[in-house]
Amino acid sequence: MFVDMVTARHYEERLQEEYLEGKQPAFDISAGPIPGELHLAAGQEAAAAGVCQHLRDDDTVTAPHRPHHVAIAKGVDLKRMTAEIFGRETGLGKGKGGHMHLFDPDVNFACSGIIAEGCPPAAGAGLAAKKRNTDSVAVAYLGEGAIDQGAFLESLNFAAVHDLPVVFVIEDNDWAISMPKERVTDVEDGSQRAGGFDMPGVRVDQDDAVAVYDAAAEAVGRARDRNGPTVMEVQVHRRMGHFMGDPESYRPEEDQEAAAERDSIERLTADLRAHGVENVAIEELREKAHERVEEAIKWAKDQPQPDPEDAYEDMWVNPPSGVTDTEPEFDLAGGDD
Ligand SMILES: Cc1ncc(C[n+]2csc(CCOP(=O)(O)OP(=O)(O)O)c2C)c(N)n1
Ligand SMILES: [Mg+2]
Question: What's the half-sphere exposure (Cβ side, CA atoms, 13 Å) at 215?
């Protein structure tokens, strides 16, 4: 968990530097080596590492618009993910998706910029696992700002009715862009949503990776043992703005300071020390993680830019073989009338 967390933190600090290149003095969102929006998850690493530690490659994870820490914890190819963020040809999606649209079929990871959008596909992956009679599970990550979305609530119902191996993980960072959660929902603890769907709900009150790990052991274990879905909420902290360039003028200074003070990585480092892990060993792990990040960024920046003509490739996908044997029920061409 420590390695995943320090990798994610260093990765995002480095992306932050790369992102700002060429975008100033006036903030030009399309300029620089990483064009477009960038949502960083520094301060939320415990929620990713504590859950994904229980997962295998054949388990599915969907993440929202703030995906890097989850992708790293799930084992997404760091080099190809970085190339995707830099819009390069060898990126996970050939550079067409960018940082909010990372897909790695080798470890069954996907993310989306549409909030709560990952919930239905995770329920679908759970249904597939059940029908195939495997013991793989699915995990959908969402922010606390997404807990009133229909896609989330419908997925909870579907997963409950079909008893699916799905864990819904809400990362509660108190904010949805500039909107504090108490202004949009009366439920203080998002895991209470589980009660309306007759499934267990659990909240981890602080971004303590070990506490997340323990809660996830039960939730993922329940899913793997075919005992149905769970909702988990984890309190995390947004150390940075909603996206890069966010002046955060809406955010009280005390809230920013509180987020900066609470650091799940420092907490886990202290835990490791308390359990007798030597400083040298901790620093060695940190250094290796940093080297891996530097290597991925260097590799990505050396990759070719895509050919503009390739924008027309991969627009459509043929159905998998076997599906085409079935006559379509409707005339998709529309016919004369
Ligand atoms: C369906 C949908 N509505 C609105 C948006 C615009 N939007 C992007 S992020 C965001 C807030 C998300 O807050 P939360 O779910 O708490 O995640 P966080 O950004 O705090 O990680 C909104 C409203 C969107 N992407 N998708
Ligand atoms: Mg939020």
Answer: 30
